[in-house]
Design a protein that fits this description.
Layout (H helix, E strand, L loop, with lengths): L15 E4 L3 H11 L4 E4 L6 E6 L2 E6 L5 H15 L3 E10 L9 E9 L19 H9 L7 E8 L10 H7 L4 E3 L2 H11 L2 E11 L9 H19 L3
Bound molecules: hypoxanthine (HPA).
Length: about 240
């Protein structure tokens, strides 16, 4: 039966779901990666597709922007559709001086300024971490040219408001980049005993805006991250 935010039937989703933020990117991934992609949900324009890659079932669905949106979709996928793993594939702003635009970041863990995980365990600072099995599969699939970095990111609630000096301080602590969804997705996976991973392409650098990506580059440079995400989706 459909959920409030997903119009699919039971069995419509594969055990693994790739999740870009943008539903149109979900559609492009479905049609480039899968031979037989079919639309399984389009509630509120949040497109979801299921098909096969090398004969193995895979789904792809948009998560929307921000931790509340991602939490709604991932919760319903885990709770109502038997999904076992979600792999976020998106972009991030670079923070560490070790990462460059076009590099790939595998988010081992995600700091956050959001209260969504604090709400789960009041009084504690929840460690939002990825599935080790998925990390291993993704990293094993990477080649030298993919410029992959494995480490922490921060999932912020605000895109446009950042406390003065915070980005520089995070860079000092080795934080690789910033997105707006990973910490909450890791929290939902912990809640349901399922697996999650976030793989991001660096689209711009917060401490050096001279090399930000064009919209066209975002699509082509995205392919390296996608290869890692598919490997994680099919991890043994
Ligand atoms: N925040 C800031 N810059 C960014 C982000 C973000 O979430 N994603 C890509 N660039």
């Amino acid at each position: 039966m459909a959920t409030p935010h997903i119009g699919a039937e039971p069995g419509d989703f594969a055990p693994a779901v790739l999740m870009p933020g943008d539903p149109k990117r979900a559609e492009r991934i479905a049609h480039t990666l899968m031979d037989d992609a079919r639309l399984v949900t389009d509630v509120r324009g949040m497109l979801g597709f299921t098909g096969t890659v090398d004969g193995k079932p895979l789904s792809v669905m948009g998560s929307g922007m921000g931790q509340p949106s991602a939490t709604i979709y991932v919760t319903e996928l885990f709770r109502e559709y038997g999904v076992e793993r979600v792999i976020r594939v998106g972009t991030c702003g670079g923070i560490s001086r070790d990462v460059s635009v076009g590099d790939v970041v595998v988010a081992l863990g995600a700091h956050t300024d959001s209260s969504m995980n604090t709400f789960r365990l009041p009084g504690l600072h929840f460690s939002a971490v990825a599935s080790y099995d998925l990390i291993r599969a993704a990293v094993d699939a990477a080649s030298e040219e993919d410029n992959v970095h494995v480490g922490t990111i921060i999932s912020r609630d605000h895109f446009y408001l950042t406390p003065d000096g915070q980005t520089e301080r995070l860079a000092k602590y080795g934080v690789l980049g910033v997105d707006m969804e990973a910490a909450a997705m890791y929290g939902v996976a912990a809640e349901f005993g399922k697996q999650a991973l976030t793989i991001l392409t660096v689209s711009d650098h917060l401490l050096d805006h001279s090399k930000d990506m064009s919209a066209e580059d975002r699509e082509t440079k995205f392919q390296g991250a996608l290869k890692l995400a598919v490997a994680a989706a099919f991890a043994e």
